[in-house]
Amino acid sequence: MTQHTDLPSDLLPATVREFFAAHVVRDADTASSFLTEDAVIVDQDETFRGRKEVHAFLWDAGSEFEYTTEQIGARRVDDTRWVVTVRLEGTFPGGVAELDYRFTLRDDLIAELVIANHAA
């Protein structure tokens, strides 16, 4: 059964919280430590596979812009899938974006992360 309830961030799995905290401050090394060896990240229809590609993505993601990140929602989909919704404001085109970070966990690590526009 799918559960769609807003959760405070402290009720997210530690792996998701800690990955996200590292990602927000652009600490690619720490963020990568929460990923499986065969992790996949999909960001706006671009796919990165394996720890080397994913680490490079995390290192470069958004580096050409200045922006703030605010968590505005979180929910549990099932035992292995979680969604964190964030609002970005900054110097990128459009200046404001709401994104869903859709995490799939395996053995307490992130096996897949899909970053996409938030579906209102």
Can you walk through the features of this model?
With 120 residues, the chain is an alpha+beta fold. The protein is built from 3 helices and 6 strands. The chain has a 6-stranded mixed sheet with strand order 2-1-6-5-4-3, with helices on one face. The longest helix has 11 residues, at 14-24. Mean pLDDT is 89; it is low at 1-5.
Keywords:
alpha+beta; 120 residues; single chain; globular; 22% helix
Beta-strand segment tally: 6
Task: Calculate the mean pLDDT score and round it.
Answer: 89
Structural class: alpha+beta
% residues in beta strands: 35-45%
What value does the Rg take, in angstroms? 14 Å
Provide the low-confidence segments as ranges: 1-5
Shape: globular
As a percent range, the share of helical residues equals 10-25%
What's the arrangement of strands in the largest beta sheet? Answer: 2-1-6-5-4-3
